[in-house]
From TrEMBL:
Family annotation (Pfam families): PANTS-like (PF11326)
Protein name: Synaptic plasticity regulator PANTS
Localization in the cell: Synaptic cleft
Family in the record: Belongs to the UPF0545 family.
């Protein structure tokens, strides 16, 4: 039986929850042809969309019925999602990580870049007039 109640205090991690519409969009993308194409390109196979569908289900139960068990499962889903994103970033070996900025990070712009920036500025002024 589900645990329904009015949640008076903040449940730890509740701030992680996104609007249910975002879970729906994520699921639609996962199941759509473009999402499937990206999955095939990135992983060589289709990704299981069931966890996203479950997250949407839990979000709707939380939103409509204030089901605390669904809220807790949704928080676990979001925590797991954030851990996977962080690990993917940390394990990315494509780019060399820097400990300090390049020595010329604040050097003046080259002439071609200055002219381009000026022309963009003039274009913006003309639009506002």
């Amino acid at each position: 039986m589900s645990n329904t109640s009015d949640v008076k205090g903040e449940i730890s991690g509740q701030w992680l929850i996104r609007p249910c519409e975002e879970y729906h969009e994520e699921l639609s993308h996962c199941r759509g042809w473009l999402g499937r194409l990206q999955q095939r390109y990135m992983f060589g196979e289709k990704t299981d969309c069931a966890p996203i569908a479950e997250a949407l289900h839990h979000c709707m139960f939380w939103l409509q019925r204030k089901d605390v068990d669904s809220l807790k499962k949704l928080i676990l889903y979001e925590e797991d999602r954030l851990i996977h994103r962080k690990l993917a970033s940390e394990n990315n070996d494509v780019w060399q990580k820097r400990s300090k900025p390049p020595s010329d990070w604040n050097a003046p712009l080259p002439d071609w870049a200055k002219k381009r920036a000026e022309s963009i500025g003039k274009h913006q002024e003309q639009k506002q007039s």
